[in-house]
Description:
The complex is a heterodimer of chains A (352) and B (279). Chain A is α+β, with helices and mostly antiparallel strands and 352 residues long. Chain A folds into two domains: 7-231, Rossmann fold (3-Layer(aba) Sandwich); 236-342, CATH 2.40.50.140. Chain A has helices at 45-53, 95-105, 110-123, 139-151, 169-186, 197-203, 221-226, 231-236, and strands at 7-16, 19-29, 34-38, 60-65, 68-69, 80-83, 157-161, 189-194, 206-211, 214-219, 243-250, 253-256, 259-263, 271-277, 282-285, 289-298, 303-309, 312-318, 329-334, 339-342. Chain A starts with 6 loop residues before the first strand and ends in a 10-residue tail after the last strand. Chain B starts with a helix and ends in a 9-residue tail after the last helix. Chain B has 13 helices and no strands. Chain B has a single domain (56-270), classed as Orthogonal Bundle (MetI-like fold), CATH 1.10.3720.10. The radius of gyration of chain B is 24 Å and the shape is globular. The chains are: A alpha+beta (352), B mainly alpha (279). Chains A and B meet through strand 6, helix 2 and helix 4 of A and helix 8 and helix 9 of B.
Amino acid sequence: MTGPGKVRFEDVVKMHGNFAALKGVEFEIEPGEFFALLGPSGSGKSTTLRILAGLDMPTRGRVILDDQDVTAQDARERDVAMVFQSYALYPHMTVAQNIAFPLEMEKKSKAEIEPLVREAARKVRIDHLLDRRPGQLSGGQQQRCALARAIVRRAKLFLLDEPLSNLDAKLRLETRAELKRLQRDLGVTAVYVTHDQEEAMTLADRMAVFMEGEIQQIGRPADVFARPNSIDVAGFIGSPPMNLLPGRIEGGQVVVAGKPLSTAPAGLASRDVIVGVRPGAVQVNGTGRAATVEFVENLGDTAILDLKLDGAPIRARISDGRPFADGDQVAITVAPQDVHLFDAETRRRIEA
Amino acid sequence: MKTKHLRAIGLLIVTGIFILAWVFPIFWSVLNSLKNEQDVLAYPPKLFFEPTLAAYRSVLFGPQSILPNLWSSFVISAGTTILTMAIAIPAAYALARLRVPGSRWAGFYVLATQMLPPVGIIIPYFLILRNIGWMDTYQGIILIYLSFSLPFAIWLMVSYFEDIPFEMEEAAAVDGASRLTTLRRIILPQVQGGIAVTIVFVFLNAWNEFLFAVVLSGNTVRPVTIAMFNFVSVEQTLWTQLAAVSVIAMLPVVILGILAQKHIVKGLTVGAVKGGGRR
Lengths: 352, 279
């Protein structure tokens, strides 16, 4: 989809005193894209969103919106809409008045506003609640009201700051699917902040993984999952996270805890590495390397085995945990294409 | 079960005593304002008598009418209230939102001004007013009242503004509202309870004030608290008329309280949106 809503961050730095909240963040978002900012708390993802909204000023760098430098522009001049984590609904106004507020600020007439409010409310299915006040709504309804207020204006950008974090688990799943549908229907550019990788994986067209004020990796969620470019991203994405074990490349083998685990990619010299294996890629079968079951976690449709591989802890995710008990001896194999190699010093991925 | 009953009864008795102590002066004033001169002085006091409005007629329309004094009180109290709120609302908003150096000490300073014994500052105030030629004027007495009410009103309002989450203003900014519009449409409606409470406090203090009024004014500007003493003289005390003036002087306060109550309750419920929390 092409249209307005193209974003570019150029070397954006944000200092809080001596603390660098953002250390030179750069990315581009295409019009119509659903872009997630993913990272643990304090990683700078919310600061990035606030700078994009115009609520915070960067210490250095530029923010470009539709080929226009908006770095110095205030939030009210930027034509962006935002859903806050707390929803920030105006408690003294009805739902209809809340949704109408951004339109009133555009000096639209009452006759223009009324149908737009109704339409936005209908899209998020709260058109029967227009006369209520936020205090009389459930958490999910408040969330929808905040969404309606954000979509009613057809802003260039649709910003969402952890919009699902105050909902209970069931509602979160429902709303997640609806959010995606809504964004597709509207065709707007959405920027979504979350610490929940599952949300980012399911919603985003592309995502940026934030760590300590820097973007570690940008890409399609599936690509980031398949090829994390650093130890930190590898350890953050995936649940349970990737197994990361100290090891060596030796004689064409990936050696972990003294013995070969898998075949190394061709062309790599002998060296120390960090070996990464997703729990789902650990195959528990009769052949291969011997390991001891320390603990079985049954999750219903899957099970997690906590294994010891000659002293090294490694986790396996399997479909059925029933055949296994604590203390069992098993044998595991890892396919060569499922092995991720990282440099322990630079923490970057070693490309074969 | 039994101890529960006992506790309820005990609570009722204690509450009863407090209410009695609070209601008695009002009851006494109302009762005596309706008596004639003989019944007032009767001993033992009469609870049943033929009520008369003679005292009210005399204090309102007689030669010693207190109507001009009520007007004076009103001008002083309303003037103080309007000026106080006009300054206190923006000042409190600024103190609550902006990082003003020394704002942490402001609260202490305000409380300190409220604790000063008034007699300690009445002489300097007297000298100031005399030097600028504002003795016995409305602007003079309002200026003095402002010096107490303003710090107190700001202090009170700051806490109401601080209760409003910052995200509310950010949401308004993203929605395209200017700072002034945000204050008018988003912030002020949410602190209307606080505004009502503050208005009542400021107005009441100004309306009830006696000491400064009697020292710094009294001839041309003569609020009702001073005028009341016309009815107390060396020869006699006109109890019925004194009581009638008291009742009349109480009325605006009571009316204001009732009017404000609606807003206070509304202000309490309006802020009740769950799901707040920090970013």
